[in-house]
Amino acid sequence: MVKPLYGRVLLKLSGEALMGDQEFGISPDMLKYVSEEIRSVVELGVQIAVVVGGGNIFRGVKATSYDMDRASADHMGMLATVINSIALQDSLEYIGIQTRLQTAIKMHEIAEPYILRRAVRHLEKGRVVIFGAGTGNPYFTTDTAAVLRGQEIHAEILIKATKVKGVFDGDPVAYPEARFISKISYMEVLERQLGVMDMTAISLAMDNQLPLVVFSLKDKGNIRKVICGENLGTYIST
After folding, report:
1. Is 172 exposed, middle or buried (0-12, 13-18, 19+ CB in 10 A)?
2. Which of 14, 41, 161, 190 has its CA 20 to 30 A from that of 198?
3. pLDDT tens digit string along 186-219?
């Protein structure tokens, strides 16, 4: 059996990844697919934590375009991430993977509050830990939350599963001629303002030297392949 290259990882999933082919909401088939992908990593003995976005339900930034207060919109977005997190937790537990959900906003009836030491202990016991509600603060994206949580739990790498194969020098949807980039530095991402993650997240990862891999979720086994060190997607580091 192939040995994993990393012992503890932070997986960032966009809310859109859970939509599948739908225009919004959560696709049951996609939820099952993602859960099976995570199980394949857990079976390797890898400790894995997950941060899920909420863009499939509500986007705070877009809501500000019709005069909603940014803080109110972002709080709604945080609640959307919790909905996704509960769905993922239920799906993982249905296939026998012990999972704990911790939220940055306290909601005791449905999740544990975020407590770093407790989260690490769950990981050490082989449980998947899902971090919901972002950082708990408006004006910060779930990408930034993922980097922050990755640093706090001492993840060896942050892997971001997306709809495209990695980082391009332009939007591959709008510009089919955009070039794929297999390896790039944090600083170059910042200087060229490539839209792989928001600039705050990239800066935080750079300051703490947390390596990032951006790859496609579409191909079965990709999460496992990345964790086992296969040359897949785009590697971002110093």
Report:
1. middle
2. 41
3. 999 999 999 889 999 999 999 999 999 999 999 9
